[in-house]
Every structure is written in structure tokens, then in C-alpha cells.
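Run log, item B.
One chain of 357 residues. Sequence copied directly from the ordering sheet:
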Amino acid sequence: MDTLLVTGGAGFIGSNVVRAALATTPWRVVVLDALTYAGHRESLADLERDPRFAFVEGDIADPARVAETFARFDPRFVLHLAAESHVDRSIDGPREFVRTNIVGTHEMLVGARAHADALPAAERARCRFVHVSTDEVFGTLGAEGRFDERSPHAPRSPYAASKAAADHLAAAYKETYGLHVVVTNCSNNYGPYQFPEKLIPLMTLNALEGKPLPVYGDGRQVRDWLHVEDHARGLLLALQHGRAGERYLFGGDAERTNLQVVEAICAALERQRPRPGGGRYLDLVRHVTDRPGHDRRYAVDARRARAELGWAPTHSFERGIDATVAWYLAHGGWCTAVQAKGYGRERLGVLPTGERR
């Protein structure tokens, strides 16, 4: 039985990828996760009894732990998702982003290379490493156009810069050492198991509690929204069929302004759980000071993934939002558990008054 190693598998995208892999492949799936504030065993609780599932608590920036995991489980495939991922947190504390996203990625590449090099030639040729990244590495777009595989890296936040550096490291390990590396970049994900610091779960949970819905600036920043289950399917296709050294972009063809997303969440809540005492959830919207360096628009051209991998998104934004809101309404226990490490949905990433931007 082949083994897939998923780093960050207790996080949002990672836990959805683990489910997809167990459901659609014959592989054993091993998760390596440090269980930081955004990684939770609760997100994998339904998988714990699956004999093809294993969990290792460990830091990807710890070379000994990485080497031990490769030696113990002998994986042929790696999906590298572990990352610090919240832009606001990167503004407050960029050092952790450098450590995890750059140093951690390097240690995973070192571990994968050493493991592959020790295998017989036929087995070494089967090894695959997919580095999972973001469209934020490309910076910001104007009113027209989309990012594609030829777009230059132009990051504008510490988070995006750390992911851009990791992209380059991953690509370099293919060119320098011959490691079979594929890099993927995705648009904004949404769906079940997303930590409540991100826009959609944050707005959903705040609205249910009658708290303000903070919209940054004018709320007209545009993102291309991709359901996490579509992304997970794309990553497995990239792992199985992606060409070494290539980059694949995954987007949902669902551009919406942040304000439109909040309006869609409020509309879904009105249908599924009307606000007690009457009134509209939209009345809770409050425009707040914008994020420093806030990119204005992202959009993704996924034609290569469609043509070479046979991938296409299957979730419409409207149905996806309805289903996502319904998931959070049905999983209040999970929401409480994952916020128990001290996160109170407070605003992050606000520079002190007078600080240079």
C-alpha cells in the first residue's frame, strides 16, 4: 500500500484533502501537523478509526521530526500544505511565517530528497512532492485579467512573501536535485472546517451572536472563491498527473467583492436561521479601517489544470455558501472547541497609530 504524507492535515484545506484521499484512493494517509492554533484533531475525529489513517504531531521546521516521519512511514507521495496562512497575523508577527513557510518548506524538501535518494531507482521515480501555495504570491490585479502560470511573483504582505519564497525553493529542488516537484496556487478557499479567523466563518459566527460584521475599507476588494472540496480534488489530480516542474492554478470562477460575500452569508442565514427578534443580519455590517497593503483584486486562470489534469470546479458559489453556512450551524461544538486556544475573533493586523505603512 502506497503512503501519502500530508503536512498540515489537521488544518482547513489539509483535513479536507485527507478525507478526499481516503475516499478516492487506496493509499494510507499520514498527517504531520504541529497542532498550532489553526490545527485541530477535532477536524479529523471521524477518521481516527480508519486503519489507513495515521497522525504524527510534529513541526515541519524540525529536521529530526521530518526525517523520523519519512523513515517510519516510507511515503511515496507528499502533499505539503502546512503553513501559517492568515495575512493579518503575518502583519502582527512575520517571524513565525518565515520559520514555518520558508524554513519548514525547506526541511520538507530536504527530507523528501533524502528519502527519495535512498530508494531503488524504480521507486525513486514514483516519488511526488506537491507544494501547495496561494494566488497571493502574485500580488494584486487591476480591473481586468487573471493570474496564470506565467504571472510573476510580486507579494505585498509578509504572508505572501513567505509563500513566494517557498514556491521558489520548491521549484529549485526540481531543477537542482531532480526531485519530482509540482507547485500549485489557489484562489480563496471556503467550506467546512475553516478556522474562524477567515472571512466566511468569522462573519457567520459573529452574525449568529449578534456581533458586528467588520468589513475592511469599502468592501470592494475582489476575490475568486473556490470550494475546498474542489481544491482537494485538484490537488490529488496534480499529485497523480502533474508534470514535474510545472505549476497549476486552481480557481473557482467565482469573483465576488468582500461585501458581496458578506451579503450572501447574511442571506443564507436569513433562510436557514432568521435573526431572533426580527431585524436583518446585514444591519450588523460595520466598515472598519482597511488592512495595510490590502490587495485589491485576485482572479485565477485555471485553463492548464482543466486541460492537463481534467479538473474543473463543481460547486457554484451560491450553493457552496448555503452549504457552508449550514455546516457551521450544525457544528457548533467544533466551532467552540477550535476557538478554545484563546482566539476570540478579535481584529488582528492593525498597525499602531502613526506607524509607517
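Observations after the first pass:
- The chain is about 40% helix and 15% strand.
- The first strand starts at residue 3 and ends at 7.
Flagged for discussion on Thursday.
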